[in-house]
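Renewal narrative, Specific Aim 1. Our central claim is that a sequence can be written position by position from structural information alone. The example that follows is taken directly from our test logs and has not been curated for this report. It begins with the structure tokens describing the chain, in the order in which they were read.
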């Protein structure tokens, strides 16, 4: 039924699109006219971008001229307000529609009449405005083999809301895709970022000495090419330069400055240098700032307008104070501004303290899903373990909300990225930089129109939104994942040639991956249930034979996989995407730089039940010599999660197994209320077999509102058992709980058992909270957290 419905939607859209062509201007034989003479880079490249992108999609090569065509059936006229063309008398009626700010543009249509052909005027405020206007036109054209049309009602007048809109594309080993690219692939990607409104790119010229085996060029070669590509598309060229020298150190400082100077001499264009204060880098501000001044003096010998920027990432309070005192006292002209990255002080306070002469740049992490600046709130651990940090991750709703929360404090952004998996997010942020109130669905439609197929823009947008919805809530309960796959399968059948085949396949791959993972979760959960039921027979059967039978049941996940065809399809996607764009979805197969760097195929069959833990426990049981002891231990294994009569068991970090903990599933809500409703974190599981239960993969650092358990037997005694990292300072109804004993430790978590005070049970209700702990000196990975909790009648122990 779902497939039929989705198919009907696609057919309906095709029908509707065909019916509206009568109300569109046919540009299939249009002539592109532009200004003659020497042109600035952006205006010079604008007609090339228009013609080549349309030819790529339709096979039509539109002619380009600098003289107004006499016998054209349609004209696309590209010009600027600041430098009118020789045919400017024809643009008088549209120049007034161009907004005043830099980089603005206007698009206006004049229908064909007796006096002349249909004309599409693309008029920029300046050179960049003309190029951004061409990008807007391309995102709204309807294209097919042999045909180019535009709605007769289309028009646009736009100005960028933020002056800086860019993305980091560091050419280094950690990138999960573009370290394998050719120059022409980088050229195309730079172009496509511009088409969606970006005006800056940031490279990483030195950091990370390891070279990728996939690199086709040396880093010095690519450093020069990056600058050339930025110049070709008039993109601001930034570089990310951590100061890894431990200052002061005259010898190492001189060597680092010498390395920098060689680079500054070679690159064609350089606009800004961003130095992170930390992550990496670990220098006191009093030593770092003078060194930055030396860097600025050096770069200005070759690029006089370039500025040095600094982030306060991991700065201590005294470092922050030093910097602001320095800026207020010296007012350095070489300093461009501050950068807000993960680990920086709060944005609003920073902007208030920063002098108006300096800008504030955002450095948002829009590339990761877990263990990051903007994680997916309450991501199901089954997805966190398999999709990991760098999966294909369009997040239109979440990132629109995140952007709108903080953009007004900034002058713009250059996002953090290490691959193309976040391609939609980059283009969404670029468009939000033009208009923070833009409807993310509108952006998704333009993305699907341009990169998938123009007549499937609406369904393609639905598909992008569905991949974000797949990440919300408990995976086992998310039946919409199958519907999302059906939608993408219909698109797959409908798209013969996509505007960007790899982009379509990359998102299609995610739809198949999500559905495959959910099938495995349901299947492997049931296998565990069957295995535990088989183990229960050991109370009256041969222990070793029941263990063997239980093991065989658990092993069916590998010996009798739930979806062989789906797995084959995923592996084929991985192969195709590697061949087309070097997407590294596996370490051994495709040379991904690490298992957290997008290697989703290496976790495609990672156990989604407690199989590894159970196998280790059963192996220990086999080694016991006494049958009675074996049976007793098996009983413990079978009843591991069983809290007994009028008891409770919660996995506090699992979205589907923590009913007493309030949850905010949208990133905007989660960020606004993170103090009251903190999100769980997820540990890095690693690629090797481990002894962890599924409950121990996700955890909460804090539970500020407590966890309340009711309907307890007030006439009985109770204990609270939990697993936590470090000693857990449990409080029950405001009273510090008495620790009765500690049990086994598995990896970082230890069993801890507490007495429930008798007086707290009088009303049959208790609330668990935790004392505040000063853990400021600890790395976040070493801080106290809780994974799962039992409330048990004492006699059950």
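The sequence written for that structure reads:
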């Amino acid at each position: 039924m779902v497939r039929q419905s989705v198919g009907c939607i696609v057919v309906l859209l095709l029908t509707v699109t065909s019916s509206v062509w009568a109300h569109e201007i046919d540009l299939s034989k249009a002539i592109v006219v532009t200004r003659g003479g020497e042109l600035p880079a952006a205006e010079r490249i604008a007609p090339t971008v228009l013609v080549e992108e349309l030819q790529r999609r339709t096979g039509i090569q539109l002619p380009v001229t600098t003289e107004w065509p006499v016998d054209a059936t349609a004209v696309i006229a590209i010009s600027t307000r600041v430098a009118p063309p020789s045919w400017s008398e024809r643009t008088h009626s549209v120049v007034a529609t161009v907004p005043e700010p830099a980089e603005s543009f206007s698009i206006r249509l004049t229908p064909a009449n007796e006096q002349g052909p249909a004309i599409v005027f693309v008029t920029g405020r300046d050179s960049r405005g003309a190029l951004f206007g061409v990008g807007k036109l391309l995102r709204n054209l309807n294209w097919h083999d042999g045909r180019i049309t535009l709605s007769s009602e289309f028009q646009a007048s736009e100005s960028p809301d933020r002056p800086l809109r860019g993305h980091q594309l560091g050419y280094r080993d950690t990138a999960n895709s573009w370290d394998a690219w050719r120059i022409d692939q980088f050229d195309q990607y730079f172009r496509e970022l511009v088409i969606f409104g970006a005006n800056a790119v940031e490279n990483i010229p030195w950091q990370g000495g390891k070279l990728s085996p996939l690199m086709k060029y040396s880093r010095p070669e690519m450093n020069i090419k990056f600058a050339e590509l930025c110049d070709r598309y008039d993109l601001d060229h930034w570089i990310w330069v951590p100061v890894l020298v431990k200052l002061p150190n005259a010898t190492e400082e001189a060597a680092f400055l010498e390395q920098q100077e060689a680079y500054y001499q070679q690159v064609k264009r350089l606009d800004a240098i961003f130095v992170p204060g930390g992550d990496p880098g670990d220098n006191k501000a009093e030593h770092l700032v003078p060194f930055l001044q030396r860097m600025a003096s050096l770069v200005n010998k070759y690029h006089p307008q370039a500025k040095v920027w600094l982030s306060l990432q991991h700065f201590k309070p005294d470092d922050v104070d030093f910097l602001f005192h320095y800026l207020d006292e010296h007012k350095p002209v070489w300093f461009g501004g501050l950068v807000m990255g993960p680990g920086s002080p709060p944005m609003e306070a920073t902007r208030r303290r920063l002098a108006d002469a300096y800008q504030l740049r955002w450095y948002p992490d829009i590339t990761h899903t877990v263990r990051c600046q903007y994680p997916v709130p309450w991501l199901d651990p089954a997805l966190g373990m398999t999709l990991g940090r760098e999966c294909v991750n369009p997040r239109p709703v979440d990132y629109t909300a995140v952007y709108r929360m903080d953009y007004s404090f900034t002058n713009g952004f250059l996002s953090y990225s290490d691959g193309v998996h976040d391609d939609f997010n980059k283009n969404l942020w670029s468009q939000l930089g033009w208009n923070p109130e833009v409807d993310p669905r509108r952006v998704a439609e333009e993305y699907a129109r341009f990169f998938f197929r123009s007549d499937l823009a609406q369904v393609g947008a639905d598909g992008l939104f569905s991949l974000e919805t797949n990440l919300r809530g408990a995976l086992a309960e998310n039946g919409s994942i199958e519907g999302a796959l059906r939608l993408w399968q219909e698109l797959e059948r409908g798209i013969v040639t996509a505007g960007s085949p790899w982009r379509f396949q990359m998102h299609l791959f995610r739809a198949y991956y999500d559905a495959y993972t959910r099938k495995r979760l349901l299947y492997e959960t049931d296998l565990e249930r069957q295995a535990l039921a088989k183990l229960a027979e050991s109370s009256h059967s041969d222990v070793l034979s029941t263990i063997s039978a239980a093991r065989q049941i658990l092993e069916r996940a590998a010996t009798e996989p739930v979806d062989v065809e789906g797995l084959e399809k995923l592996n084929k996607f991985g192969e195709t995407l590697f061949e087309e764009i070097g997407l590294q979805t596996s370490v051994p197969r495709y040379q991904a730089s690490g298992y957290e760097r997008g290697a989703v195929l290496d976790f495609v069959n990672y156990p989604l039940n407690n199989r590894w833990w159970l196998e280790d426990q059963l192996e220990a049981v086999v080694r016991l010599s006494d049958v009675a002891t074996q049976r007793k231990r098996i009983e413990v294994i079978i009843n591991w999660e069983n809290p007994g009569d009028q008891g409770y068991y919660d996995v506090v970090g699992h979205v589907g197994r923590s009913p007493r903990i309030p949850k905010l599933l949208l990133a905007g809500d989660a960020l606004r209320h993170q103090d009251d409703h903190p999100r769980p974190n997820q540990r890095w599981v690693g690629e090797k077999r481990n002894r962890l239960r599924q409950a121990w993969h996700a955890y909460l650092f804090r539970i500020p509102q407590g966890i309340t358990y009711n309907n307890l037997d007030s006439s009985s005694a109770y204990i609270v058992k939990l697993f936590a990292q470090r000693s857990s300072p449990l409080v029950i109804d405001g009273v510090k709980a008495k620790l009765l004993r500690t049990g086994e430790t598995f990896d970082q978590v230890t069993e801890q058992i507490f007495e429930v005070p008798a007086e707290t049970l009088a009303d049959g209700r208790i609330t668990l909270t935790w004392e505040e702990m000063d853990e400021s000196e600890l790395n976040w990975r070493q801080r106290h957290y809780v994974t799962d909790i039992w409330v048990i009648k004492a006699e059950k122990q």
